[in-house]
Amino acid sequence: MGRMSPRSHALDDATIALRELILAGERYRIAVAAHLDLTVNESRAISYLLARGPMGQTELSAALGLTTSSTTTLLDRLEQREMVRRVPDPDDRRRSYVELPESGVRRIREVRNWMPHAFDAIDAGDLPVVAAWLSTIAASLQAVTAEIDESPGSGTGRRKRH
Q1: Which of 22, 33, 118, 134 could disulfide-link 38, Cβ–Cβ 3.0 to 4.6 Å?
Q2: How many Cα atoms are found within 13 Å in the side-chain-facing hemisphere of 30?
């Protein structure tokens, strides 16, 4: 067996670090969801709305990887708890947007202050570079995920479980 090139070794190390970051993020989501008495999918929906602002219900459904009926049920629960609000699209009565009302923002304020602690060990001057790298990695991972979703056989013999 030959030696790994420096790039291959560095790529393996980076992939392991990314996998650990994803696992830590998944565990963080579980802890935050439990703290807020939400399901993981409810927490995911709120995260999308925090990160991207108001979204169409169909767009949110696609982002979550859920059926539209599952998303409707999820949003019904969140709306009942005043965590989200559906707003009719002024240009298309068939559509609605989902947004975080002030009541939802107030409820998640405490947990929103927890995530920035992930950067406590990083110098303030390095944060813009870290943010740029994280954005690049997120975009690359989204592109790879889209390729997987569109690949032949995707969905064949596999159940969506979220």
Answers
A1: 33
A2: 7
Task: Please write the tens of the pLDDT for every residue from 101-151.
Answer: 999 999 998 888 899 999 999 999 999 999 999 999 999 999 999 999 888
| Whole-number Å distance between alpha carbons of 90 and 151 | 37
List the beta bridge partners of residue 56. Answer: 97
- Locus of tokens 């995260």: 47
pTM of the predicted model, to two decimals?
0.81
Q: To 5 degrees, how large is the angle CA 18–CA 24–CA 26?
A: 105
**Do the strands 55-56 and 92-99 form a parallel or antiparallel pair, or are they unpaired?**
antiparallel
- The answer to whether the CB of 55 falls within 8 A of the CB of 49 is yes
The topology (CATH level 3) of 6-121 is: Arc Repressor Mutant, subunit A (1.10.10)
Contact 20, 13 (CB under 8 A): no
Q: What is the pLDDT of residues 76-109, one digit of tens each?
A: 999 999 999 999 988 888 889 999 999 999 999 8
Q: What is the CA radius of gyration of the chain?
A: 19
Q: How far apart are CA 52 and CA 155, in angstroms?
A: 27
Ordered by start, the domain boundaries in the chain are 6-121, 123-162
DSSP H helices in the chain: 6-35, 40-52, 57-64, 68-80, 102-112, 127-150
